[in-house]
């Protein structure tokens, strides 16, 4: 489950201006609904080119047990990446794009606000940049356990570190974005990687936003980050994300699994909160 986006779709929070841009590949139906939505799918190729037959692949397709897509719509999963972990490809691909936008440097102090699926993926990738000090920040203290498994620092949102070279907001809340502005260095960049749907966001820009010359820059996965757009395709970005998933630390994000029969109840539960859930996977095993 792509929790942030799919819960927004489930709750009817896609603004009319985004109906076309928010269409998932192979979506059935139109917003606000009913729609068959989703785009994180891992399965085995049953028929097609010999080079793909029997391969475990990732593809962007709504929740469905079997389907037909063009051969170039699937990407083989590397050896060493379990199928269940591979469903994180979309989240890691988003994290790659966020970091291409953020452009961290050696030794930077970086905060990631929001320890959801995307924030955790961003934090883990940041850990691989030499000398970078990473702080994962969340309102839920239970997220410290996940941060420990990812090998990054954790701070409660009530007492975050300040004077950060880069702050990335993935919390999906204006409170998170405000915290980012308050904790970034003067002349610093805040990367806004959240998507708010039709929800308004309120910020206090009458404090030191102008005097400290702060910048808010958006980042999203729909297009390759500007600095890499001329020499990277979206497919190359996805292949990179799948390769990065050979890192077993990403297993920490796979918190729940359900049978497809339970999908309506799962979506309702996610929409109502489920604070300890990160990636909830759906298994297509069992009776049709």
Q: Percent of residues in helical segments?
A: 25-40%
Q: What is the 3D shape?
A: globular
Number of strands: 13
Cα Rg: 19 Å
Uncertain stretches: none
Strand order of the largest sheet: 8-7-6-9-10-11
Oligomer: single chain
Please give the alpha-carbon distance between the first and last residues. 20 Å
Q: Give average pLDDT, whole number.
A: 95
Largest sheet at a glance?
6 strands, parallel
Strand content: 15-25%
Distinct helical segment count: 8
Pattern of helices and strands: HEEEEEHHEHEHEEHEEHEHE
Question: Class by helix and strand content?
Answer: alpha/beta
Walk me through this protein's architecture.
This protein is an alpha/beta fold and 288 residues long. 26% of the residues lie in helices and 21% in strands. It contains eight helices and 13 strands. The chain has helices spanning 3-10, 83-86, 89-102, 117-127, 143-150, 174-183, 234-244, 263-271, and strands at residues 28-29, 35-36, 41-44, 56-59, 74-76, 109-113, 133-138, 153-156, 164-169, 184-192, 215-218, 254-259, 279-283. The strands form four sheets. The chain has a six-stranded parallel beta sheet, sandwiched between helices. Strands 3-4-5 form a three-stranded antiparallel beta sheet. Helix 6 links the parallel strand 9 and strand 10 (184-192). Helix 3 (89-102) crosses helix 4.
């Amino acid at each position: 489950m792509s929790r942030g986006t799919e819960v927004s779709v489930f709750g009817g929070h896609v603004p009319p201006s985004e109906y076309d841009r928010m269409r998932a590949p192979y979506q059935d139906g139109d917003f606000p609904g009913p729609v068959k939505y989703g785009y994180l799918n891992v399965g085995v190729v049953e028929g097609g080119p010999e080079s793909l037959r029997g391969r475990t692949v990732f593809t962007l397709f709504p929740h469905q047990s079997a389907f037909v897509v063009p051969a170039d719509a699937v990407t083989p999963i590397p050896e060493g990446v379990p199928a269940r972990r591979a469903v994180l490809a979309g989240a890691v691909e988003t994290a790659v794009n966020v970091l291409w936008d953020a452009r961290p440097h050696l030794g930077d102090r970086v905060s990631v606000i929001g320890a959801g699926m995307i924030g955790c993926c961003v934090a883990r990738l940041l850990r691989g940049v030499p000398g970078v000090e990473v702080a994962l920040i969340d309102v839920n203290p239970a997220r410290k356990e996940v941060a420990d498994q990812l090998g990054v620092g954790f701070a409660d949102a009530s007492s975050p570190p300040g004077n950060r070279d880069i702050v990335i907001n993935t919390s999906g809340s204006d409170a998170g974005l405000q915290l980012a502005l308050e904790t970034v260095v003067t002349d610093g960049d805040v990367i806004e990687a959240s998507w708010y749907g039709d929800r308004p966001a309120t910020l206090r820009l009458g404090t030191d936003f102008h005097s400290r010359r702060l910048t808010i820059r958006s980042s999203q996965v729909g297009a390759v980050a500007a600095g890499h757009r001329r020499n990277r395709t979206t497919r190359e970005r996805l292949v990179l994300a799948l390769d990065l998933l050979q890192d077993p630390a990403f297993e920490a994000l796979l918190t729940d699994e359900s049978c497809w029969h339970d999908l309506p109840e799962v979506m309702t539960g996610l929409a109502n909160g489920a604070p300890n859930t990160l990636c909830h996977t759906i298994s297509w095993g069992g009776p049709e």
